[in-house]
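If your schedule permits, I should be very grateful for your opinion on a structural question. Thank you for your consideration; the sequence and its tokens are set out here:

===
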Amino acid sequence: MNMVLAIDLSSNNLSSTIPSQLGSCIALENLNLSRNIFEGPLPASIGNLRYLKELDVSFNQLTGEIPDSLQASSTLKQLNFSYNCFSGDITNNDAFSSLTVKSFLGNNRLCGSIEGMRKCHRKLTHNLLVAILLSLLIIPIFCVAGYPLLLRSKFRRKSTVFNMKGIEDEKEAIRKEIKYPRISHRQLLEATGGFSPSTLIGSGRFGHVYKGVLQDNTRIAVKVLHFKADGEISGSFKRECQILKRTRHRNLIRIITICSTPDFKAIVLPLMPNGSLEDHLYPSHGPQCGLDLVQLVSICSDVAEGMAYLHHYSPIKVVHCDLKPSNILLDDDMTALVTDFGISRLVKVADENFSVNDSAAYSFGSTDGLVCGSVGYIAPEYGMGKQASPQGDVYSLGVLLLEIAAGRRPTDILFKEGPTLHEWVKRHYPNRLEPIVEGAIERCAPCATGQLDSTKIWRDVILELIELGLICTQYNPLTRPTMLDVAYEINRLKQYLSSPSNLLIE
């Protein structure tokens, strides 16, 4: 659950110890374990959660000292340790500086400098003088006889500690190896035939993508990034790694590992056996059967779901900035996965009550000088110097919907018949859409894996795709729907195709 933001298990009579694995919930902001019967120590790993703001473990049977990691946290604002069996000295420093005794009620063995808490008193023995005299006698004897023994013991202890540290480092390395396996530059060379042109499957602004097979028969795609003197490539590499590492969704490409040296940087991804959506929309080997309408709507639904996650639910909000058919890959089951986050913007919410239509709620990375996307899919406001926003991704997805319905690349329209695909389709809407609809049916019908009840169903769905595409590509970004709205509408079309009798399109 490393993407969960809040956990509330209060008032459940849960017992045993609090699992230290909670420290792996790296995005956790709120944790409430109050009013249970947890016992034992409070795991120090919880204090290492870098985004944790609120912690409530009151009304349990927790023992031991409160971990120092909690006090050292820079994000914790609200804490409640009341009515447990904690012990030890509490200082009013760092995260505890704003706390009062109310946060520690019912812990009779706690003392410290928190306002309202009893002070800690150190007891002095009445034989202090005798202890001083004995120490004066023991020190000379120790210097003569005991020091060599202590020195030997010290070196032995250092050696033991060093060995234990080495074992722990090795264990940690093994754990990391399991999660993100190490693949060397040499292994990538062997897997791709020395990055042979015959293994090249794609090229872009920042690098080339090669296919390959590792020694364990794992099929991979290797994105090798170009180097430039201005450091632009470094920012793209770091940004894409950060997004792939911290986002988890069934419709987003997952990362296998990275390979990074001073003069070579590559991202290793799983190879998608069915290629990209572009390969199916525009096959390069002459006329052949493409995707049917059911598959196309399902792919659009997958893309919208993945993008809605990035905009609304991901721990780091992301604007993709380059959504197009070549960046949509298809796995064994024809499930769509969004890929290529090289020019994406990492979005940081400035206000908890932000509106997705408020561009001021977002701040962006160091690539704002780059063109936000590919020709034909770029939102018009980007050409006026506006910052990247979720509405830009909605525009790109709208272009994709119109492209599927019209069967034409947006660049074909751009250079031949009009300013944008949106304008070209809009000129035909609503009374002159018949040629577009008939063309879509002709392209999709021969490839249908299952026969639908009537041509009317196909017609209904294609018309809905066109209308949704026009809404998403409106000139004013404030009038476009959110990606959540788009995902909901496409999912309705998907349900309609699977069970037309149970769902009527309004």
Observations:
- Residues 154-178, 348-370, 448-453, 502-506 have pLDDT under 50 and may be disordered.
- Residues 299 and 335 are 7 Å apart (CA to CA).
- The chain has four domains: 6-112, 129-179, 185-270, 277-502.
